[in-house]
């Protein structure tokens, strides 16, 4: 059993029989006598990827979900399904586009990921925190286009996703992107 005092980012808990991952939390101390301390949380549903705000009383107890994480590799996408291979057992499986959701925009052939197995079956995937991509298209920087602060422009990636990058980035460069936020992190040196 886990309690709110065990909370840390990334911990997995069962809420109403469904598995959730704790994305962020804050502890709100009472201002009046007799009030209880509250823990405000942002949780992500493991199976659907939906994010919710929940509030719990301090000391509330939670069960740990029966989750297994296994390394997998993305193989390819066909009409409606995404195909993966378990890198330990070499078994192949597929997930419907609804199961993959927004994560689909970061999938490249051969990408190393993690499968989430809930109650014996694959329920979804988890992306690495950061992934590398090639810029396939972006506007050239125009002289005098800089201003004080961080000026960004749109860049299309090899997966079709569009992210904001600094003005100095050009087509053909490789970048590191934070998959949770979709933000540019840094330029990656050529190999």
Name the CATH architecture of the largest domain: Roll
The N- to C-terminal Cα distance equals 47 Å
Specify the CATH class of the largest domain.
Answer: Mainly Beta
Domain count, please report it: 3
Quick rundown:
By secondary structure, this protein is mainly beta.
Question: What are the key terms here?
Answer:
191 residues; SH3 type barrels; OB fold (Dihydrolipoamide Acetyltransferase, E2P); 3 domains; five-stranded antiparallel β-sheet; 52% strand
Structure commentary:
With 191 residues, this protein is an all-beta fold. It folds into three domains: 2-62, SH3 type barrels (Roll); 67-126, Nucleic acid-binding proteins (OB fold (Dihydrolipoamide Acetyltransferase, E2P), Beta Barrel); 130-188, OB fold (Dihydrolipoamide Acetyltransferase, E2P) (Beta Barrel), CATH 2.40.50. 2% of the residues lie in helices and 52% in strands. It has one helix and 16 strands. It has one helix at residues 97-100; strands at residues 2-3, 12-15, 18-28, 38-45, 51-57, 61-62, 67-77, 81-86, 92-96, 112-118, 121-126, 130-138, 152-157, 162-166, 174-178, 183-188. A five-stranded antiparallel sheet has the order 9-8-7-10-11. The radius of gyration is 20 Å and the shape is flat.
Which helices and strands, and how do they pair?
Blueprint: E1 2-3, E2 12-15, E3 18-28, E4 38-45, E5 51-57, E6 61-62, E7 67-77, E8 81-86, E9 92-96, H1 97-100, E10 112-118, E11 121-126, E12 130-138, E13 152-157, E14 162-166, E15 174-178, E16 183-188
Antiparallel strand pairs: 1-6, 2-3, 3-4, 4-5, 7-8, 7-10, 8-9, 10-11, 12-13, 12-15, 13-14, 15-16
